[in-house]
Structures are given as structure tokens and as C-alpha cells.
Amino acid sequence: MKKALIVWGGWDGHQPKEVAEIFRQVLVGENFEVEVSDTLEAFADAEKLKGLDLIVPVWTMARIEQKLVDNVSAAVQSGVGLAGCHGGMCDAFRENVDWQFMTGGQWVAHPGNDGVEYTVNINYSSSPLTAGIEDFAVRSEQYYLHVDPAVEVLATTRFPLAPGPHSLNKAVDMPVVWTKRWGVGRVYYNSLGHHADIIEIPTVKELMRRGFLWCAEGKSLAAEAGAGAAAYSGMADNQL
């Protein structure tokens, strides 16, 4: 039985408790042993984290002790998967660039705020994470992110739709779903999920389910391959 840790908290506007419960149900349905915590101190035991298969952060707009980021980073570098959505993963700790480097991006804007109707365009490829999934529309926040160019983009959305200072720039396809590697660990992100009802959309929930499984599978595959990676301990000037 694979082990997962869900850690929720931060800004209540993203309904972290409700989203964490949806994720818990998804993982239990996939036969995971799931621990749910509402404190960042859940990241304090470095060795315990390395014994997991998956870490799921659901925590928006907070500050975090550097040691806790280092512990999560080391666990993921060793093969533990990291998967999350919306601000719960890529607007978690705005001051901590190590977290942003690991996760692959950082939210910077949502022009039009909540209620923008936009299309999520699936990038058709050989990835099992999007196999059989069609483009779909959603009414929610449309996330504009600063994104690591190393990520593998699995879905995008077109900007601009809502007016703003960005509108006179050329149209751009902003990543919505991506994967990347951190050491030998797998990282998955989906920018959807402003509220729990967005996560409950069947296509969104299915994308998250596949992301969780893909990330958790990475640990055993890395171990079988005897893979390793140079340790990265972060930057001394990584946060204010």
C-alpha cells in the first residue's frame, strides 16, 4: 500500500479543507494509506517524508520555515512524488524561491478574477496523463503563471480574455497542467481548483487522479533503476 501525505491550510478562500478531503477520497479509492494534516509541521520529519510515495500540498499564501522546504525538497529529490493544484501548490509560499523552483511555477495574476469562462486545451501526446481527455470549458479563475521552461506542458489556456495591462501583448498559451522532475522525483501541477466545486468537475478530478498516480509511481521506478541525482540544498538568499 502506497503512502500519501496531504497537508492543507493557508488562505481559507481556496477551501483547503474541502479540497484536501476530495483528494483524500481519490487516494483512498486508489488504495493509498493517507495521512491528512493541517499544520506545516507535518514537513518537519525529513526521514518520514522520504518514506512516503506522494506529498500533496493544499496550502495557499503563507510563510514557511526554510528547513521544512528543505525536507520536502530532499524527499522529492529522492523519489517521492509531489502533486497539487491551483494556489495550493504554486502560490503556496510567495517568498520562497526554492519552493517555486521545485514546483515549476508561481501564480502572478488572474485577469478577470473568478468567473472567467475559458477553454483548457489538451496537448495531445503519448502521455498517459491526458490520454482520451478532450478540450473542455471551465468558469473560474484563469491563472497567469511564471513557469519553468523545463516543464512538460500537458494542457494550456489562451490569454488574453479579460482586459488588463497584458492585453496589448500577443496572444499566449499559458500552461494549465504540467509535469517536471526534481531529482528523481516526479512533480505534477494543475492550475485549476479555485474552489472545491472545480475539483469536483469529472475531467478535473480525473486529471488530478492520474497526476497523483503518476507521481507516486515514480519512487518505485527510480529505485528499480538505481537512479540518483545530485543533492540540491537550496539557495542561501531564497526568501526575504
SSE order and pairing:
Elements: E1 3-10, H1 16-29, E2 33-37, H2 46-50, E3 54-60, H3 66-78, E4 81-85, H4 86-90, H5 97-103, E5 105-109, E6 116-122, E7 136-140, E8 144-147, E9 152-159, E10 172-182, E11 185-190, H6 196-199, H7 202-225
Parallel strand pairs: 1-2, 1-3, 3-4, 4-11
Antiparallel strand pairs: 5-8, 6-7, 6-9, 9-10, 10-11
How far the N terminus sits from the C terminus, by CA atoms, comes to: 40 Å
Radius of gyration: 17 Å
Mean pLDDT over all positions: 95
Indicate the percent of residues in helices: 25-40%
Protein name: ThuA domain-containing protein
InterPro entries: Class_I_gatase-like (IPR029062), ThuA-like (IPR029010)
Domain ThuA-like: 3-215
Pfam families: ThuA
Describe the structure.
The protein is of the alpha/beta class and 240 residues long. It is built from seven helices and eleven strands. The strands form two sheets. It has a nine-stranded mixed β-sheet, with helices on both faces. InterPro entries: Class_I_gatase-like, ThuA-like. Residues 3-215 form the ThuA-like domain. It comes from Paenibacillus arenilitoris. Pfam families: ThuA.
